[in-house]
Amino acid sequence: MKNKKLAIPSAIYVALCFIFLYLPIVVTMVFSFNSSKSLTSMTGFSMQWYARLIEDGSIMKAVYVSVSIAMFATIISTALGTITAIGLSKCKKVLKDVIINLNDIPIMNPDIVTAIGLMILFSSITLEKGYLTMLLSHIAFCTPYVLTSVYPKVRNLDPNIAEAALDLGATPFEALTKVIIPMLKDGIFAGMLLAFTMSFDDFVISYFVTGNGVQNISIIVYNMTKRTNPTINALSTIVILIIAITLIVINVMPERFKNFMKYFAAGLFAAGLIVTVFTGFAGTQRTLRVYNAGEYADPSVLESFEREYGARLIYETFDSNESMYTKVKSGAQYDIIIPSDYMIERLINEDMLKPIDWSKLTNADGLDPAIMGFDFDADNTYSVPYFVGTVGILYDKTVIDEEDLSEGWELLRNEKYKGNIYMYDSERDSFMVALKALGYSMNTDNKDEIDEAYRWLIEQRDRMDVVYAGDDVIDNMISGNKALAVVYSGDAAYIISENENMGYLEPSQGTNEWCDSMVITKDCEDEELAHEYIDYMLSYDAAYANSAYVGYSSPITEVSNELSEEDYEGIDAYVPDFGYELNESFRYQETSIKQYFADLWTKVKAY
Questions:
Q1: Among residues 299, 334, 293, which one has the least CA distance to residue 129?
Q2: What is the pTM of this model?
Q3: What is the architecture, at CATH level 2, of domain 388-513?
Q4: What is the DSSP annotation of 529-540?
Q5: What is the CATH number of domain 57-280?
Q6: Less Cβ crowding at N or C end of the chain, within 10 Å?
Q7: What is the pLDDT at residue 340?
Protein backbone atom coordinates (compact mmCIF):
# COMPACT_ATOMS: atom_id res chain seq x y z
CA MET A 1 0.00 0.00 0.00
CA LYS A 2 2.84 2.32 0.84
CA ASN A 3 4.38 1.91 -2.63
CA LYS A 4 1.00 2.54 -4.31
CA LYS A 5 0.57 5.78 -2.40
CA LEU A 6 3.98 6.94 -3.57
CA ALA A 7 3.25 5.97 -7.18
CA ILE A 8 0.33 8.40 -7.52
CA PRO A 9 2.24 11.63 -6.88
CA SER A 10 5.15 10.32 -8.92
CA ALA A 11 2.84 9.88 -11.91
CA ILE A 12 1.53 13.40 -11.41
CA TYR A 13 5.06 14.80 -11.33
CA VAL A 14 5.92 12.98 -14.54
CA ALA A 15 2.73 14.24 -16.21
CA LEU A 16 3.42 17.82 -15.14
CA CYS A 17 6.97 17.52 -16.43
CA PHE A 18 5.78 16.37 -19.86
CA ILE A 19 3.10 19.06 -19.96
CA PHE A 20 5.77 21.66 -19.21
CA LEU A 21 7.97 20.28 -22.01
CA TYR A 22 5.36 19.75 -24.71
CA LEU A 23 2.71 22.41 -24.11
CA PRO A 24 4.71 25.09 -26.02
CA ILE A 25 5.04 22.66 -28.94
CA VAL A 26 1.29 22.00 -28.95
CA VAL A 27 0.54 25.75 -28.82
CA THR A 28 2.91 26.36 -31.75
CA MET A 29 1.21 23.67 -33.82
CA VAL A 30 -2.29 24.95 -33.02
CA PHE A 31 -1.46 28.54 -33.95
CA SER A 32 0.08 27.43 -37.24
CA PHE A 33 -3.55 26.99 -38.39
CA ASN A 34 -4.68 30.41 -37.17
CA SER A 35 -6.57 32.47 -39.73
CA SER A 36 -5.04 35.75 -38.51
CA LYS A 37 -1.50 36.97 -37.90
CA SER A 38 -1.99 36.95 -34.15
CA LEU A 39 0.34 34.71 -32.18
CA THR A 40 -1.86 34.77 -29.08
CA SER A 41 -5.49 34.93 -30.24
CA MET A 42 -7.03 32.06 -32.22
CA THR A 43 -9.56 33.55 -34.65
CA GLY A 44 -10.28 30.60 -36.97
CA PHE A 45 -8.83 27.71 -38.94
CA SER A 46 -6.71 28.33 -42.05
CA MET A 47 -3.91 26.69 -44.06
CA GLN A 48 -2.71 30.04 -45.42
CA TRP A 49 0.59 30.02 -43.51
CA TYR A 50 1.55 26.63 -44.94
CA ALA A 51 0.76 27.93 -48.43
CA ARG A 52 2.90 31.01 -47.81
CA LEU A 53 5.68 28.80 -46.45
CA ILE A 54 5.76 26.78 -49.68
CA GLU A 55 5.63 29.93 -51.81
CA ASP A 56 8.47 31.62 -49.92
CA GLY A 57 11.60 30.60 -51.82
CA SER A 58 13.92 32.01 -49.14
CA ILE A 59 12.55 29.59 -46.54
CA MET A 60 12.88 26.61 -48.86
CA LYS A 61 16.49 27.57 -49.55
CA ALA A 62 17.13 27.90 -45.82
CA VAL A 63 15.73 24.40 -45.22
CA TYR A 64 18.07 23.01 -47.87
CA VAL A 65 21.06 24.86 -46.38
CA SER A 66 20.27 23.65 -42.83
CA VAL A 67 19.81 20.01 -43.83
CA SER A 68 22.77 19.81 -46.20
CA ILE A 69 25.14 21.63 -43.83
CA ALA A 70 24.04 19.40 -40.95
CA MET A 71 24.57 16.23 -43.02
CA PHE A 72 28.00 17.22 -44.31
CA ALA A 73 29.14 18.51 -40.91
CA THR A 74 27.89 15.34 -39.19
CA ILE A 75 29.70 12.96 -41.52
CA ILE A 76 32.99 14.87 -41.57
CA SER A 77 33.04 15.68 -37.84
CA THR A 78 32.13 12.07 -36.97
CA ALA A 79 35.05 10.78 -39.05
CA LEU A 80 37.45 13.32 -37.53
CA GLY A 81 36.25 12.78 -33.98
CA THR A 82 36.33 8.98 -34.22
CA ILE A 83 39.82 8.87 -35.75
CA THR A 84 41.10 11.29 -33.12
CA ALA A 85 39.55 9.26 -30.28
CA ILE A 86 41.17 6.06 -31.56
CA GLY A 87 44.50 7.82 -31.99
CA LEU A 88 44.37 9.20 -28.46
CA SER A 89 44.29 5.68 -27.06
CA LYS A 90 47.84 5.20 -28.35
CA CYS A 91 49.19 8.54 -27.10
CA LYS A 92 51.23 9.17 -23.99
CA LYS A 93 49.27 10.31 -20.95
CA VAL A 94 50.66 13.87 -20.97
CA LEU A 95 49.77 14.43 -24.62
CA LYS A 96 46.42 12.73 -24.13
CA ASP A 97 45.49 15.02 -21.24
CA VAL A 98 46.52 18.12 -23.20
CA ILE A 99 44.39 17.16 -26.21
CA ILE A 100 41.36 16.28 -24.08
CA ASN A 101 41.58 19.65 -22.30
CA LEU A 102 41.97 21.48 -25.62
CA ASN A 103 38.94 19.60 -26.94
CA ASP A 104 36.87 20.81 -23.97
CA ILE A 105 37.56 24.50 -24.64
CA PRO A 106 35.26 24.86 -27.72
CA ILE A 107 32.50 23.01 -25.83
CA MET A 108 32.71 25.31 -22.79
CA ASN A 109 33.40 28.47 -24.81
CA PRO A 110 30.35 30.75 -25.30
CA ASP A 111 29.02 30.52 -28.87
CA ILE A 112 29.39 34.25 -29.41
CA VAL A 113 33.13 34.09 -28.69
CA THR A 114 33.58 31.20 -31.11
CA ALA A 115 31.51 33.02 -33.71
CA ILE A 116 33.54 36.24 -33.52
CA GLY A 117 36.79 34.26 -33.63
CA LEU A 118 35.75 32.35 -36.75
CA MET A 119 34.47 35.52 -38.41
CA ILE A 120 37.81 37.27 -37.83
CA LEU A 121 39.70 34.19 -39.05
CA PHE A 122 37.79 34.01 -42.33
CA SER A 123 38.13 37.75 -42.86
CA SER A 124 41.87 37.71 -42.17
CA ILE A 125 42.50 34.98 -44.74
CA THR A 126 40.09 36.70 -47.18
CA LEU A 127 37.90 33.63 -47.50
CA GLU A 128 34.57 34.72 -48.96
CA LYS A 129 31.79 34.09 -46.48
CA GLY A 130 29.02 31.77 -47.56
CA TYR A 131 28.21 28.07 -47.71
CA LEU A 132 31.84 26.93 -47.32
CA THR A 133 32.58 29.11 -44.28
CA MET A 134 29.38 27.96 -42.59
CA LEU A 135 30.23 24.31 -43.28
CA LEU A 136 33.80 24.68 -41.97
CA SER A 137 32.50 26.40 -38.84
CA HIS A 138 29.95 23.66 -38.17
CA ILE A 139 32.61 20.98 -38.59
CA ALA A 140 34.83 22.88 -36.16
CA PHE A 141 32.28 23.08 -33.35
CA CYS A 142 30.72 19.62 -33.94
CA THR A 143 33.97 17.60 -33.87
CA PRO A 144 34.69 18.15 -30.14
CA TYR A 145 31.26 16.74 -29.25
CA VAL A 146 31.91 13.62 -31.33
CA LEU A 147 35.30 13.13 -29.70
CA THR A 148 33.72 13.49 -26.25
CA SER A 149 31.12 10.82 -27.12
CA VAL A 150 33.49 8.30 -28.72
CA TYR A 151 36.55 8.51 -26.48
CA PRO A 152 34.95 6.87 -23.39
CA LYS A 153 34.07 3.86 -25.56
CA VAL A 154 37.65 3.68 -26.83
CA ARG A 155 38.97 3.66 -23.26
CA ASN A 156 36.78 0.65 -22.46
CA LEU A 157 38.17 -1.39 -25.38
CA ASP A 158 40.58 -4.24 -24.68
CA PRO A 159 43.88 -2.97 -26.13
CA ASN A 160 44.71 -6.50 -27.30
CA ILE A 161 41.69 -6.80 -29.63
CA ALA A 162 43.33 -4.96 -32.52
CA GLU A 163 46.54 -6.99 -32.18
CA ALA A 164 44.55 -10.23 -32.09
CA ALA A 165 42.79 -9.27 -35.31
CA LEU A 166 46.13 -8.56 -36.96
CA ASP A 167 47.52 -11.90 -35.74
CA LEU A 168 44.53 -13.66 -37.32
CA GLY A 169 45.39 -12.21 -40.73
CA ALA A 170 43.38 -8.98 -40.87
CA THR A 171 44.94 -5.94 -42.47
CA PRO A 172 45.15 -2.75 -40.37
CA PHE A 173 42.21 -1.29 -42.33
CA GLU A 174 40.13 -4.44 -41.81
CA ALA A 175 40.96 -4.44 -38.10
CA LEU A 176 39.77 -0.82 -37.91
CA THR A 177 36.55 -1.20 -39.92
CA LYS A 178 35.49 -4.74 -38.95
CA VAL A 179 36.63 -4.98 -35.34
CA ILE A 180 37.26 -1.63 -33.66
CA ILE A 181 34.58 0.60 -35.21
CA PRO A 182 31.74 -1.96 -34.71
CA MET A 183 32.64 -2.06 -31.02
CA LEU A 184 32.48 1.75 -30.88
CA LYS A 185 29.20 2.09 -32.79
CA ASP A 186 27.14 3.20 -29.76
CA GLY A 187 29.50 6.08 -29.07
CA ILE A 188 29.78 6.93 -32.76
CA PHE A 189 25.99 7.02 -33.25
CA ALA A 190 25.61 9.16 -30.12
CA GLY A 191 28.24 11.55 -31.48
CA MET A 192 26.54 11.66 -34.89
CA LEU A 193 23.15 12.50 -33.41
CA LEU A 194 24.68 15.16 -31.20
CA ALA A 195 26.63 16.66 -34.12
CA PHE A 196 23.55 16.72 -36.38
CA THR A 197 21.44 18.33 -33.66
CA MET A 198 24.06 20.95 -32.83
CA SER A 199 24.52 21.84 -36.48
CA PHE A 200 20.82 21.92 -37.37
CA ASP A 201 19.98 24.10 -34.34
CA ASP A 202 22.90 26.52 -34.53
CA PHE A 203 22.19 30.21 -34.93
CA VAL A 204 24.88 32.36 -33.31
CA ILE A 205 27.91 30.95 -35.13
CA SER A 206 26.06 30.64 -38.45
CA TYR A 207 24.87 34.24 -38.24
CA PHE A 208 28.41 35.62 -38.02
CA VAL A 209 30.19 33.39 -40.54
CA THR A 210 27.72 33.32 -43.40
CA GLY A 211 27.37 35.60 -46.41
CA ASN A 212 26.33 35.76 -50.07
CA GLY A 213 22.70 35.09 -49.20
CA VAL A 214 23.37 31.73 -47.50
CA GLN A 215 21.01 31.43 -44.52
CA ASN A 216 19.89 28.45 -42.49
CA ILE A 217 16.53 27.95 -40.79
CA SER A 218 17.68 29.53 -37.53
CA ILE A 219 18.69 32.77 -39.24
CA ILE A 220 15.46 32.93 -41.23
CA VAL A 221 13.34 32.34 -38.12
CA TYR A 222 15.31 34.95 -36.16
CA ASN A 223 14.69 37.54 -38.86
CA MET A 224 11.00 36.60 -38.96
CA THR A 225 10.64 37.37 -35.27
CA LYS A 226 11.32 41.05 -35.92
CA ARG A 227 7.67 41.31 -37.03
CA THR A 228 4.62 39.15 -36.46
CA ASN A 229 4.94 36.25 -38.91
CA PRO A 230 2.94 33.05 -38.24
CA THR A 231 4.86 31.31 -41.03
CA ILE A 232 7.31 30.52 -38.21
CA ASN A 233 4.63 28.34 -36.62
CA ALA A 234 3.99 26.47 -39.87
CA LEU A 235 7.71 25.83 -40.38
CA SER A 236 8.14 24.72 -36.76
CA THR A 237 5.16 22.36 -37.02
CA ILE A 238 6.58 20.65 -40.10
CA VAL A 239 9.99 20.22 -38.43
CA ILE A 240 8.32 18.79 -35.30
CA LEU A 241 6.24 16.33 -37.32
CA ILE A 242 9.25 15.15 -39.34
CA ILE A 243 11.23 14.50 -36.16
CA ALA A 244 8.30 12.73 -34.49
CA ILE A 245 7.60 10.53 -37.52
CA THR A 246 11.29 9.68 -37.86
CA LEU A 247 11.50 8.58 -34.22
CA ILE A 248 8.34 6.50 -34.51
CA VAL A 249 9.50 4.80 -37.71
CA ILE A 250 12.93 4.04 -36.28
CA ASN A 251 11.43 2.41 -33.20
CA VAL A 252 8.62 0.36 -34.77
CA MET A 253 9.54 -0.50 -38.35
CA PRO A 254 10.98 -3.95 -39.30
CA GLU A 255 14.73 -4.40 -39.68
CA ARG A 256 14.39 -4.99 -43.44
CA PHE A 257 12.65 -1.65 -43.87
CA LYS A 258 15.34 0.02 -41.77
CA ASN A 259 17.96 -1.12 -44.29
CA PHE A 260 15.85 0.28 -47.11
CA MET A 261 15.61 3.62 -45.31
CA LYS A 262 19.38 3.69 -44.86
CA TYR A 263 19.89 3.31 -48.62
CA PHE A 264 17.15 5.85 -49.31
CA ALA A 265 18.79 8.39 -46.96
CA ALA A 266 22.16 7.72 -48.60
CA GLY A 267 20.59 8.38 -51.99
CA LEU A 268 19.10 11.66 -50.81
CA PHE A 269 22.47 12.69 -49.39
CA ALA A 270 24.23 11.88 -52.68
CA ALA A 271 21.61 13.85 -54.61
CA GLY A 272 22.05 16.80 -52.24
CA LEU A 273 25.81 16.66 -52.71
CA ILE A 274 25.48 16.70 -56.51
CA VAL A 275 23.03 19.62 -56.39
CA THR A 276 25.34 21.54 -54.04
CA VAL A 277 28.38 21.02 -56.25
CA PHE A 278 26.59 22.00 -59.44
CA THR A 279 24.97 24.98 -57.75
CA GLY A 280 28.39 26.22 -56.72
CA PHE A 281 29.65 26.15 -60.32
CA ALA A 282 26.47 27.25 -62.05
CA GLY A 283 25.44 30.74 -63.02
CA THR A 284 27.28 33.47 -64.89
CA GLN A 285 24.44 35.99 -64.63
CA ARG A 286 24.83 39.41 -63.09
CA THR A 287 24.77 39.36 -59.31
CA LEU A 288 23.63 41.98 -56.82
CA ARG A 289 24.27 41.69 -53.08
CA VAL A 290 21.59 43.39 -50.98
CA TYR A 291 21.64 43.74 -47.17
CA ASN A 292 18.33 44.73 -45.59
CA ALA A 293 16.55 44.52 -42.25
CA GLY A 294 14.61 41.34 -41.54
CA GLU A 295 11.01 41.14 -42.81
CA TYR A 296 11.49 44.42 -44.67
CA ALA A 297 10.65 43.42 -48.25
CA ASP A 298 7.99 41.42 -50.03
CA PRO A 299 9.71 38.21 -51.29
CA SER A 300 7.63 38.34 -54.49
CA VAL A 301 9.13 41.75 -55.31
CA LEU A 302 12.65 40.37 -55.04
CA GLU A 303 11.77 37.41 -57.26
CA SER A 304 10.15 39.64 -59.88
CA PHE A 305 13.28 41.83 -59.97
CA GLU A 306 15.41 38.77 -60.71
CA ARG A 307 13.07 37.71 -63.54
CA GLU A 308 12.79 41.15 -65.08
CA TYR A 309 16.52 41.93 -65.07
CA GLY A 310 17.86 38.40 -65.52
CA ALA A 311 19.99 38.92 -62.41
CA ARG A 312 20.80 36.87 -59.36
CA LEU A 313 19.90 38.60 -56.12
CA ILE A 314 21.92 37.66 -53.03
CA TYR A 315 19.62 38.96 -50.32
CA GLU A 316 20.65 38.94 -46.65
CA THR A 317 19.01 40.44 -43.59
CA PHE A 318 20.18 41.99 -40.32
CA ASP A 319 18.46 42.58 -36.98
CA SER A 320 19.87 46.01 -36.16
CA ASN A 321 21.91 48.83 -37.68
CA GLU A 322 24.73 48.07 -35.27
CA SER A 323 25.01 44.39 -36.24
CA MET A 324 24.91 45.43 -39.91
CA TYR A 325 27.74 47.90 -39.36
CA THR A 326 29.82 45.30 -37.49
CA LYS A 327 29.46 42.79 -40.29
CA VAL A 328 30.29 45.30 -43.03
CA LYS A 329 33.34 46.56 -41.13
CA SER A 330 34.52 42.97 -40.62
CA GLY A 331 34.89 42.56 -44.38
CA ALA A 332 31.48 41.37 -45.60
CA GLN A 333 30.84 42.90 -49.02
CA TYR A 334 27.48 44.17 -50.26
CA ASP A 335 26.37 46.34 -53.16
CA ILE A 336 23.28 47.88 -51.55
CA ILE A 337 22.36 48.19 -47.90
CA ILE A 338 19.23 49.71 -46.31
CA PRO A 339 20.22 51.33 -42.97
CA SER A 340 18.51 53.98 -40.86
CA ASP A 341 19.20 57.69 -40.87
CA TYR A 342 21.88 57.98 -38.16
CA MET A 343 23.76 54.95 -39.50
CA ILE A 344 23.76 56.42 -43.01
CA GLU A 345 25.37 59.54 -41.57
CA ARG A 346 28.07 57.38 -40.00
CA LEU A 347 28.70 55.51 -43.25
CA ILE A 348 28.97 58.84 -45.11
CA ASN A 349 31.43 60.20 -42.54
CA GLU A 350 33.57 57.08 -42.85
CA ASP A 351 33.58 57.29 -46.67
CA MET A 352 31.92 53.91 -47.14
CA LEU A 353 29.30 54.95 -49.71
CA LYS A 354 29.16 55.91 -53.37
CA PRO A 355 27.05 58.86 -54.59
CA ILE A 356 23.69 58.09 -56.19
CA ASP A 357 23.41 58.87 -59.91
CA TRP A 358 19.89 60.32 -59.86
CA SER A 359 19.82 60.54 -63.67
CA LYS A 360 19.52 56.72 -63.72
CA LEU A 361 16.47 56.66 -61.45
CA THR A 362 13.53 57.10 -63.84
CA ASN A 363 10.98 56.53 -61.05
CA ALA A 364 12.43 59.13 -58.67
CA ASP A 365 9.81 61.68 -59.75
CA GLY A 366 7.27 59.79 -57.66
CA LEU A 367 9.11 60.46 -54.40
CA ASP A 368 7.29 62.65 -51.90
CA PRO A 369 9.29 65.93 -51.54
CA ALA A 370 8.31 66.04 -47.85
CA ILE A 371 10.52 63.06 -47.05
CA MET A 372 13.56 64.28 -48.99
CA GLY A 373 16.48 66.25 -47.57
CA PHE A 374 16.79 64.82 -44.07
CA ASP A 375 19.66 66.28 -42.05
CA PHE A 376 21.75 63.11 -42.23
CA ASP A 377 22.01 63.57 -46.05
CA ALA A 378 20.58 66.99 -46.81
CA ASP A 379 21.01 66.79 -50.59
CA ASN A 380 20.26 63.06 -50.87
CA THR A 381 23.70 62.65 -52.38
CA TYR A 382 24.07 59.13 -51.03
CA SER A 383 20.60 57.92 -50.05
CA VAL A 384 17.24 57.11 -51.61
CA PRO A 385 14.25 56.80 -49.23
CA TYR A 386 12.92 53.26 -48.72
CA PHE A 387 10.44 53.51 -45.83
CA VAL A 388 9.55 56.44 -43.60
CA GLY A 389 7.66 56.94 -40.37
CA THR A 390 7.53 58.37 -36.88
CA VAL A 391 7.52 57.13 -33.28
CA GLY A 392 4.37 57.76 -31.27
CA ILE A 393 1.98 56.46 -28.64
CA LEU A 394 -0.46 53.70 -29.45
CA TYR A 395 -3.44 53.93 -27.11
CA ASP A 396 -6.60 51.98 -26.38
CA LYS A 397 -9.53 54.33 -27.08
CA THR A 398 -11.77 52.36 -24.72
CA VAL A 399 -9.39 52.95 -21.79
CA ILE A 400 -7.62 56.29 -22.33
CA ASP A 401 -9.54 59.49 -21.65
CA GLU A 402 -9.46 61.68 -24.75
CA GLU A 403 -8.60 64.82 -22.79
CA ASP A 404 -5.47 63.10 -21.47
CA LEU A 405 -4.03 62.87 -24.99
CA SER A 406 -3.07 66.55 -24.80
CA GLU A 407 -0.37 65.57 -22.27
CA GLY A 408 1.71 64.10 -25.10
CA TRP A 409 4.67 62.12 -23.79
CA GLU A 410 3.69 62.93 -20.21
CA LEU A 411 0.72 60.63 -20.75
CA LEU A 412 3.24 57.86 -20.13
CA ARG A 413 3.61 59.15 -16.55
CA ASN A 414 -0.09 59.64 -15.84
CA GLU A 415 -0.75 57.51 -12.76
CA LYS A 416 -4.26 56.66 -13.95
CA TYR A 417 -2.55 54.22 -16.32
CA LYS A 418 -0.04 52.73 -13.92
CA GLY A 419 0.90 49.16 -14.88
CA ASN A 420 -0.76 49.60 -18.27
CA ILE A 421 2.19 50.81 -20.36
CA TYR A 422 4.70 49.29 -22.79
CA MET A 423 7.88 51.27 -23.34
CA TYR A 424 9.91 50.35 -26.40
CA ASP A 425 12.99 48.38 -25.35
CA SER A 426 15.37 50.70 -27.18
CA GLU A 427 17.96 53.00 -25.66
CA ARG A 428 17.65 55.79 -28.23
CA ASP A 429 13.86 55.70 -28.57
CA SER A 430 13.28 55.67 -24.80
CA PHE A 431 15.68 58.57 -24.24
CA MET A 432 14.02 60.35 -27.17
CA VAL A 433 10.69 60.13 -25.33
CA ALA A 434 12.17 61.57 -22.14
CA LEU A 435 14.16 64.32 -23.89
CA LYS A 436 11.19 65.44 -25.95
CA ALA A 437 8.93 65.40 -22.89
CA LEU A 438 11.41 67.76 -21.21
CA GLY A 439 11.61 70.03 -24.25
CA TYR A 440 15.15 69.08 -25.32
CA SER A 441 16.57 67.89 -28.61
CA MET A 442 16.73 64.12 -28.90
CA ASN A 443 20.21 64.57 -30.43
CA THR A 444 21.59 66.54 -27.49
CA ASP A 445 25.11 65.93 -26.25
CA ASN A 446 24.57 68.05 -23.12
CA LYS A 447 25.13 65.69 -20.20
CA ASP A 448 22.98 67.77 -17.84
CA GLU A 449 20.01 67.35 -20.21
CA ILE A 450 20.80 63.65 -20.64
CA ASP A 451 20.95 63.23 -16.85
CA GLU A 452 17.58 64.93 -16.51
CA ALA A 453 16.12 62.57 -19.13
CA TYR A 454 17.61 59.66 -17.22
CA ARG A 455 15.84 60.78 -14.05
CA TRP A 456 12.60 61.12 -16.05
CA LEU A 457 12.91 57.49 -17.14
CA ILE A 458 13.84 56.28 -13.66
CA GLU A 459 10.86 58.10 -12.13
CA GLN A 460 8.54 56.71 -14.80
CA ARG A 461 9.90 53.20 -14.28
CA ASP A 462 9.47 53.27 -10.52
CA ARG A 463 6.15 55.10 -10.44
CA MET A 464 4.34 53.60 -13.43
CA ASP A 465 5.45 49.95 -13.31
CA VAL A 466 6.22 49.98 -17.06
CA VAL A 467 7.08 46.95 -19.14
CA TYR A 468 9.94 47.24 -21.67
CA ALA A 469 8.99 45.33 -24.81
CA GLY A 470 10.47 44.72 -28.24
CA ASP A 471 8.67 43.67 -31.39
CA ASP A 472 6.41 41.42 -29.30
CA VAL A 473 4.51 44.60 -28.48
CA ILE A 474 2.71 44.20 -31.82
CA ASP A 475 0.89 41.03 -30.88
CA ASN A 476 0.37 42.16 -27.30
CA MET A 477 -1.34 45.37 -28.37
CA ILE A 478 -3.47 43.57 -30.96
CA SER A 479 -4.69 41.44 -28.05
CA GLY A 480 -5.25 44.58 -25.94
CA ASN A 481 -2.90 43.52 -23.14
CA LYS A 482 -1.98 47.13 -22.28
CA ALA A 483 -3.59 50.51 -22.86
CA LEU A 484 -0.46 52.43 -23.95
CA ALA A 485 2.64 51.57 -25.95
CA VAL A 486 5.50 53.44 -27.60
CA VAL A 487 5.62 52.13 -31.18
CA TYR A 488 6.75 52.93 -34.71
CA SER A 489 4.03 54.33 -36.95
CA GLY A 490 4.12 51.38 -39.35
CA ASP A 491 3.62 48.92 -36.50
CA ALA A 492 0.83 51.14 -35.18
CA ALA A 493 -0.90 51.07 -38.57
CA TYR A 494 -0.82 47.28 -38.64
CA ILE A 495 -2.03 46.98 -35.03
CA ILE A 496 -4.92 49.38 -35.66
CA SER A 497 -5.89 47.43 -38.79
CA GLU A 498 -6.22 44.34 -36.57
CA ASN A 499 -7.74 46.08 -33.52
CA GLU A 500 -10.06 49.00 -34.25
CA ASN A 501 -10.05 50.08 -30.60
CA MET A 502 -6.50 51.39 -30.97
CA GLY A 503 -5.48 54.92 -31.93
CA TYR A 504 -2.13 56.61 -32.68
CA LEU A 505 -0.82 59.83 -31.16
CA GLU A 506 2.15 61.93 -32.29
CA PRO A 507 2.87 64.07 -29.20
CA SER A 508 2.92 67.83 -29.57
CA GLN A 509 6.40 67.99 -27.96
CA GLY A 510 7.81 66.44 -31.15
CA THR A 511 9.08 62.98 -32.00
CA ASN A 512 11.52 60.92 -34.02
CA GLU A 513 10.90 61.35 -37.73
CA TRP A 514 12.87 58.46 -39.23
CA CYS A 515 13.84 57.43 -42.74
CA ASP A 516 15.40 54.15 -43.83
CA SER A 517 17.13 54.53 -47.17
CA MET A 518 18.87 52.59 -49.92
CA VAL A 519 22.59 53.34 -50.30
CA ILE A 520 25.32 51.99 -52.58
CA THR A 521 28.52 50.86 -50.91
CA LYS A 522 32.08 51.55 -52.00
CA ASP A 523 32.43 47.79 -52.57
CA CYS A 524 29.67 47.74 -55.20
CA GLU A 525 30.86 45.75 -58.23
CA ASP A 526 27.95 46.52 -60.57
CA GLU A 527 26.77 50.11 -60.14
CA GLU A 528 24.51 49.84 -63.17
CA LEU A 529 22.58 46.92 -61.67
CA ALA A 530 22.52 48.63 -58.26
CA HIS A 531 20.81 51.68 -59.77
CA GLU A 532 18.40 49.42 -61.63
CA TYR A 533 17.47 47.74 -58.34
CA ILE A 534 16.89 51.07 -56.58
CA ASP A 535 14.86 52.35 -59.52
CA TYR A 536 12.80 49.15 -59.54
CA MET A 537 12.02 49.56 -55.82
CA LEU A 538 10.75 53.07 -56.59
CA SER A 539 8.36 51.80 -59.28
CA TYR A 540 4.68 51.89 -58.43
CA ASP A 541 4.08 48.11 -58.45
CA ALA A 542 7.14 47.23 -56.35
CA ALA A 543 6.61 50.08 -53.88
CA TYR A 544 2.92 49.20 -53.50
CA ALA A 545 3.63 45.47 -52.89
CA ASN A 546 6.43 46.30 -50.45
CA SER A 547 4.41 48.79 -48.42
CA ALA A 548 1.32 46.56 -48.31
CA TYR A 549 3.48 43.63 -47.15
CA VAL A 550 5.55 45.46 -44.51
CA GLY A 551 3.01 48.03 -43.34
CA TYR A 552 5.27 51.08 -43.31
CA SER A 553 4.57 54.23 -45.27
CA SER A 554 6.00 54.29 -48.78
CA PRO A 555 8.07 57.30 -49.92
CA ILE A 556 6.17 57.15 -53.23
CA THR A 557 3.32 59.64 -52.95
CA GLU A 558 0.87 57.77 -55.18
CA VAL A 559 1.41 54.52 -53.29
CA SER A 560 1.01 56.01 -49.80
CA ASN A 561 -2.13 57.89 -50.88
CA GLU A 562 -3.71 54.83 -52.43
CA LEU A 563 -2.92 52.48 -49.53
CA SER A 564 -4.21 55.03 -47.03
CA GLU A 565 -7.55 54.88 -48.88
CA GLU A 566 -7.59 51.08 -49.20
CA ASP A 567 -5.79 48.72 -46.79
CA TYR A 568 -5.23 51.46 -44.18
CA GLU A 569 -8.34 53.56 -44.70
CA GLY A 570 -8.98 55.82 -41.74
CA ILE A 571 -5.66 54.90 -40.08
CA ASP A 572 -3.60 58.06 -39.58
CA ALA A 573 -0.56 56.09 -38.43
CA TYR A 574 0.08 54.77 -41.96
CA VAL A 575 0.81 58.27 -43.28
CA PRO A 576 2.21 60.11 -40.25
CA ASP A 577 2.40 63.90 -39.97
CA PHE A 578 5.80 64.83 -41.42
CA GLY A 579 7.39 68.22 -41.25
CA TYR A 580 6.24 69.25 -37.76
CA GLU A 581 8.80 71.80 -36.53
CA LEU A 582 9.61 69.97 -33.28
CA ASN A 583 10.18 66.63 -35.00
CA GLU A 584 13.76 65.47 -35.55
CA SER A 585 15.72 62.60 -37.05
CA PHE A 586 18.38 60.73 -35.16
CA ARG A 587 21.92 61.87 -35.87
CA TYR A 588 25.09 59.86 -35.43
CA GLN A 589 26.42 59.98 -31.86
CA GLU A 590 30.07 60.38 -30.98
CA THR A 591 31.50 57.37 -29.16
CA SER A 592 31.76 59.08 -25.76
CA ILE A 593 28.13 60.28 -25.82
CA LYS A 594 26.89 56.96 -27.12
CA GLN A 595 28.65 55.19 -24.24
CA TYR A 596 27.22 57.70 -21.77
CA PHE A 597 23.69 56.94 -22.98
CA ALA A 598 24.42 53.20 -22.91
CA ASP A 599 25.64 53.31 -19.28
CA LEU A 600 22.55 55.21 -18.15
CA TRP A 601 20.23 52.87 -20.09
CA THR A 602 21.80 49.91 -18.31
CA LYS A 603 20.85 51.51 -15.02
CA VAL A 604 17.30 52.16 -16.23
CA LYS A 605 16.88 48.49 -17.13
CA ALA A 606 18.58 47.22 -13.94
CA TYR A 607 15.56 46.70 -11.72
A1: 334
A2: 0.73
A3: 3-Layer(aba) Sandwich (3.40)
A4: HHHHHHHHHTSH
A5: 1.10.3720.10
A6: N
A7: 92
